[in-house]
Amino acid sequence: MKDSLDKSAEIVTGEELIEQISWLKSIVDSVHEGVIVTDVNGKILLYNKALERLEDLSCQEVKGKYLEEVYNVDASTSEHYKVAQTGQPIVDMYKTYFTREGKEISLVASTYPVFNNQRLVAVYSLCRDISKIRGLLSRTMEMQEQLTTKEKGSVYLNGTKYNFSDIIGESFQLKEVLANSKKAAEADCAILIYGETGTGKELFVQSIHNQSPRKEELFVAINCAAIPETLLESCLFGTVKGAFTGATDSPGLFEQAGGGTLFLDEINSMGSALQAKLLRVIQEKTMRRVGGKKEIEVNCRIISATNEDPWESIQQGTLRKDLYYRLAVISLYIPSLRERSQDIGLLLDYFVEKYSKIYGQKSVHICSKVREFLLSYNWPGNVRELEHVIESSISMLDQGSELTMAYLPVYLKSRVSEKSSWGNSNLEQKYYSSFMSKHGDVPEEQ
User: Fold this and answer.
1) Which entry of 47, 243, 294, 418 is 20 to 30 Å from 171 by CA?
2) pLDDT classification of 218: cutoffs 50, 70, 90
3) Parallel, antiparallel, or unpaired for β 34-39 and 119-129?
4) Residues 6 or more apart from 325 whose CB is under 8 A from it?
5) Phi first, then psi: what are they for 414, rounded to 5°?
6) Which of 316, 317, 335, 319 is nearest to 327 (CA)?
7) Residue 254's closest CA among 285, 275, 231, 283?
């Protein structure tokens, strides 16, 4: 038995071990996330280049030192020490701190234990920089807060751009959802809107707000998929000073919305724990800031949206059923453009006129072949894709020229002469995926 174990054992020489460590360091230095490794006593063993850039420190400065020698931490405040003591990971911890040069850092870090033969030997953290996201959100929230000083009676000073009159179309499907939306506006209860990406969900939401009894109040919107989970909570509910490192007394979007409307886009991307907190807010009509003890009354109306079938989201576990029932007192479905193909011609004319003025074109005419093609195209990106195509074409148009096939985006040119179905085209899907990766996160427009 001993002989077989000896034969199967792999002997690693000192040189091979050094080489393996060198490989490991090269790999760790190549990742975008910051990585720091310490032993159980808090001594820094590894500090990668991404973290060097983030914190304006060098590996040579920090390697071999203890955490409290580099950071303003101790055994009670450091995640590394806590994980070393408990052996349990701490996942997605949001924190803000300052470097020795005074640079403010906002990041989300996950800290994990490292075991060897069931013995805890080290601790490591993976850190994602969210300073830019946090800064953008802060500026957005400040602008929204400033809008609360709006002049009474002016619709477009309430944080919106659209009314029902901005929705273009004459199809039965569109007229039906418009009629239901106008009824929903007066009902003043929670609304859930479902529609594919690019159908114009936010346009409908803003229009509902502007025809509701709350039209004089503020409209506040947030895309739940665009914000890290730990940051989303503080954005929605606000924070109190000391809730976490660098936290200040700051109102969240619920408070900023006041008696207006809070629009939660892509609600199905919100984590289950935060969905549970949202459910409590809806039920109790009160909330607490992150780290706070005071109950704050919630007066705003909540409208949410999803680009996936809500029932499929419930079955997949991405949307709580009890939250769905609270959010969907009224449900509205926004039809895709292929479901209301009768409106394509009207939208073509509308966007041609709009972008002709923007790009200084006196009169733009679409040639019959191109118009016929655009009317028959399946528009997987819906109204947003149609608008993008028209703007792209007119921006390249010579003064006084006819809009011919030569001015269409590349992915459409290659399809004009093909007779195969758009829905079965791999080429279409390839270019549509590319389009959505570039334009899928812009506000819903029609």
Assistant:
1) 418
2) very high
3) antiparallel
4) none
5) -70, -10
6) 319
7) 285
